[in-house]
Amino acid sequence: MWLKCLPRLHRGELNRAPRVAASGHPWNNQFSDGLMKYIFITGGVVSSLGKGLTSAALGALLEQRGLKVRLQKFDPYLNVDPGTMSPFQHGEVYVLNDGAETDLDLGHYERFTSGDLTRQNNLTSGQVYETVLGKERRGDYLGATVQVIPHVTDVIKERIYAGSSGDVDVLITELGGTIGDIEGLPFLEAMRQFALEVGRDDVLFLHCTLLPYLKAAGELKTKPSQQSVAKLREIGIQPHILVCRTEQPMTNEMRKKLSLFCNVPVKAVIEEMDVETSIYELPLALKAEDIDDLVVAHLKVDAPDNDMKVWHDVVRRLKAPSHKVEIGVVGKYIELQDAYKSVYESITHAGIANDTNVRVIRIDAEDIEEDPAKHLASLNGILIPGGFGDRGTEGKILAAKFARENNIPYFGLCLGMQIAVVEFARHVAGLEDANSTEFDPKTQNPVIDIMEDQKDLTTKGGNMRLGACPCELAADSFSIHAYGEKNIMERHRHRYEFNNTYLDQLKEAGLRIGGVNPERQLVEIIEIPEHPWYVGVQFHPEFQSKPNAAHPLFANFIASALKYKK
Ligand code: GLN
Does the pLDDT of residue 288 top 70, yes or no? Predict the structure, then answer.
């Protein structure tokens, strides 16, 4: 199965280190065997510091040193999960194999490391309170007054212990939000207690902060960082490493100052400058600051250094591509940086795989309704990502039509596949009013619809098909050529499906079914065989692509864009 064949970032490139040396502190290890190590990552001064990327990059560095790393995210907001949050608010919802709808930082974790993530690895305050209140209603607290300490903090600590179960040496837990947020306090308190329980030698606190640059003064300022570390220390947490985001290089003076005021050794004041071209430079940038040496020394882990060849290769290929293509992404949340995060990352990976610089042109679906050719004619490929609601659908249908008629490689993801089916039904199969019932519940030709067996569920709670599902690929399809195998697993997140009532009619009109769910006979992939490369998938392949292991469909899409470039 392709899913199982994803090359691990460190495959064959390291001698597996002995797990970890026991810490041996006399009053240590009351609860831990001293083998398991924990890193907590917090953020200060401002949000959007790239804490998730820093966590993921640190995970990558430790994995390269032979450690089994797992990353998880604690989000202090009260939503139970981000599944119901708008992309405008929260960016992409990242879906795991087990169907969990999670924070997009879990996407970074999966792209930078090879550890498998599950719904256990994203905890929100909403889930914590749901658990506590459930226990309270069941009477589990035996009449006690239910309080933030210990009941809420206990639930959080249980999740830290649970996160370290199984085959893992280091658990990295990132706390969302910024120090000083009210919602974050129970999480910090739980982390403080946790460090006391398992022994301080087994726990490392890393604080990410910002050094603002004042143009008028011509200098970087350390005061906000000092204050955010002071806030952490007020709670009882002394960070061991300070990662400073900065636009300008730090002077030695500044490192000394931060060291003195934040009570962190000078060498543990790490500079994290904006990377030049790509986020995939970050592991190497942090390595240049010896952050991994600091971590293994603090945690007393016996893990040999590594030359990071995998990451050097990724960066080298990214920086000096031989070819160039332009891909249009036609969507609804085009102006938002984070709404299609995994899609853009997967395109970058496919560029790396094809030695190609892919310039992504973001196109608002509503803008092309008047004159599609104006926006689309010069593109080498068109991609329509997933989405909900009917805004911009007519523009997307025009984009799918333009790609089909002008032999421009087309890749439709989830909604992008449904759009392709509607377009084909209308303009090739002659079903003029064909539509998805999501956009027109009264359409006479619902080529995309909610399946009968789901209808009941959908009216009750809006159930979606979520998580990894099997798919069997058709012989001689674009897809089977891309994957190189017949049975694959891909992740889903949608309510509507290809309506099999129209299967024969659309097939007769020339649509190829590239893949089917063998359990429920659901159409998972549609293709147009006469076209150079026209593929729509009901799933989200963007959740399974890595910088050094591009997803086969993305890789093939970019390869065709290159091949048919005019
Ligand atoms: N809105 C469509 C559905 O629910 C597609 C969802 C998506 O693209 N993720 O089926």
Answer: yes
Rounded to a whole number of angstroms, the CA Rg of the chain reads 25
Beta bridge pairs of residue 412: 384, 536
Q: How many residues belong to the chain?
A: 566
- Strand locations in 211-318, DSSP E? 213-214, 219-220, 241-246, 269-273
Is the CB of residue 496 below 6 angstroms from any atom belonging to ligand 1? Answer: yes
Å from CA of 538 to ligand 1 middle? 8
Containing 361, the helix (H) or strand (E) segment is strand 356-364
The model's pLDDT over 493-528, given as tens digits with 9 standing for 90+, comes to 999 999 999 999 999 999 999 999 999 999 999 999
| CATH number listed for the domain at residues 37-313 | 3.40.50.300
Strand 435-436 relative to strand 446-449, pairing: parallel
- Does the domain at residues 322-563 carry the CATH identifier 3.90.10.10? no
Locate CATH 3.40.50.880 in the chain.
Answer: 322-563
Closest CA relative to residue 385, chosen from 433, 430, 340, 341? 340
Which active-site residues does the annotation give? 414, 540, 542
Angle at 307 between CA 304 and CA 310, to 5 degrees: 120
* Reduced 3-state DSSP string for 161-185: HHHCCCCCCEEEEEECCCCCCHHHH
Q: Which positions ≥6 away from 273 have C-beta within 8 Å?
A: 246, 247, 248, 249, 285
Q: 533 by DSSP, 3-state: which?
A: coil
Q: Is 497 in the pocket of ligand 1 (CB under 6 A)?
A: no
Q: Is 491 in the pocket of ligand 1 (CB under 6 A)?
A: no
**CB neighbour list of residue 297: distance below 8 Å, 6 or more residues apart:** none
CA of residue 193 relative to chain centroid, distance: 29
Is residue 564 within 6 Å of ligand 1 at its C-beta?
A: no
pLDDT at 300: 93
Distance 385 CA to ligand 1 centre (A): 10
Pocket flag, ligand 1, residue 414 (CB < 6 Å): yes
- Could you tell me if 65 and 169 are in contact, meaning their C-beta atoms sit under 8 angstroms apart? no
Atom number of ligand 1 nearest to Cα 388: 1
What is the rounded distance in angstroms from the CA atom of residue 301 to the CA atom of residue 20? 5
At residue 462, the pLDDT reads 58
Sign of dihedral through CA atoms 502, 343, 491, 81? negative
pTM of the model: 0.89
List every span in the chain annotated with CATH 3.40.50.300. 37-313
Ligand 1 centre to CA of 326 (Å) is 26
Pairwise CA distance, residues 556 & 550, whole Å: 10
